[in-house]
Recover the amino acids of this structure.
């Protein structure tokens, strides 16, 4: 069975699969309410919030679109620096919202001062930011960008932490983030199908006055049900069993230790790349700690490398995403990986490189 080192979905442990295969329970009852409540402290810790954390049976895009639908009244500013952040602009347009963007080259980070200048033009009430742009391996300066956005009155900040949550601290309350969202198939190491998100009081107030929020992704429905430790519709209960097991793991490891482990594992890949002359696609100071995106050197048989790594050693890495497919390759260090498992991958890659 090949093991995934792609930046999502990632390898899922046998313990997680075992937790997910617990017998089904009904979702309107005390057993489910206890399950729901048990997830809150762990989710609140990794997001860095005292707000309730909502559970959406959807991939991350469900909540990315929902955040726009619940919050945008006037005009949204999307901060675009790669495949996922660029697409958020398109999604805002598809939803019929007024939207403008700051676009930087793929491989660059968003400049907080450019955000300040753009917001100063006026007319915006919402900003979208991808903390960790998984397509390019860029980690944006979330604290600095949040500080700029917060300096504008009545502008809400929606932050996608899909590939950083649980691998890097987010500190949502301290930074004043209005929506903090993530899917679980990235650093949380679960199978896909569930997204988690926290919403600030200011964002809840905005949503309340928003017409046509629909039902499935209505923030008010989530909030009302959360009070009773429940979800608006039948959730992916098996994934919640899995999430319970992952959060128990995080608790026993310690969140700070988990973050340090991700950082150390990420450094191993950076050093491995350095040894082989692979250049990082992301600029120094803005590099993801949960995955690495390398330039494909000229003349390097990247697809052969990836193919042989899989066929010879059973490890899967990714050959680039979107318009930089082939020009880059990406290696994930998210989730349950240890120094030992990263070393196995490195030894295998060295073997294939010869
Ligand atoms: C994977 C990813 C998404 C998309 O998640 P889906 O689960 O496919 O909806 C969005 N944003 C980032 C940063 C991602 O890495």
């Amino acid at each position: 069975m090949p093991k995934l080192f792609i930046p999502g979905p990632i390898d899922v442990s046998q313990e997680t699969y075992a937790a997910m295969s617990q017998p089904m329970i009904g979702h309107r009852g005390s057993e489910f309410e206890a399950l729901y409540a048990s997830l809150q402290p762990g989710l609140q810790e990794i997001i860095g919030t005292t707000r309730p954390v909502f559970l959406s049976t959807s991939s991350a895009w469900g909540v990315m679109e929902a955040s726009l639908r619940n919050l945008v009244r006037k005009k949204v500013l999307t901060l675009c620096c790669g495949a996922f952040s660029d697409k958020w602009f398109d999604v805002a347009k598809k939803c019929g919202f007024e939207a403008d963007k700051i676009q930087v080259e793929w491989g660059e980070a968003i400049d907080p001062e450019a955000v300040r200048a753009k917001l100063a033009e006026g007319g915006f009430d919402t900003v979208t930011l991808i903390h960790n742009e998984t397509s390019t391996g860029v980690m944006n300066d979330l604290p600095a960008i949040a500080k700029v956005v917060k300096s504008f009155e009545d502008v809400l900040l929606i932050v996608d932490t899909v590939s950083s949550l649980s691998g890097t601290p987010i500190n949502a309350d301290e930074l004043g983030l209005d929506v903090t969202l993530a899917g679980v198939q990235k650093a949380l190491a679960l199978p896909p199908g569930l997204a988690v998100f926290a919403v600030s009081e200011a964002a809840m107030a905005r949503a309340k006055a928003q017409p046509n929020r629909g039902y499935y992704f209505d923030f008010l429905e989530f909030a009302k049900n959360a009070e009773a430790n429940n979800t608006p519709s039948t959730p992916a209960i098996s994934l919640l069993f899995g999430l319970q097991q992952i959060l128990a793991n995080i608790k026993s490891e310690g969140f700070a230790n988990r973050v340090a482990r991700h950082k150390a594992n990420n450094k191993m890949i950076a050093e491995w790349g350095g040894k082989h002359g692979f250049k990082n696609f992301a600029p120094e100071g803005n590099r993801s700690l949960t995955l690495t995106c390398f330039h494909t050197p000229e003349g390097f048989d990247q697809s052969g490398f990836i193919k042989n790594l899989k066929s010879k050693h059973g490890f899967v890495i990714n050959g680039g995403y979107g318009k930089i497919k082939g020009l880059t390759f990406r290696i994930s260090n998210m989730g349950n990986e240890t120094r030992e498992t990263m070393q196995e991958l490195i030894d295998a890659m060295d073997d294939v490189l010869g």
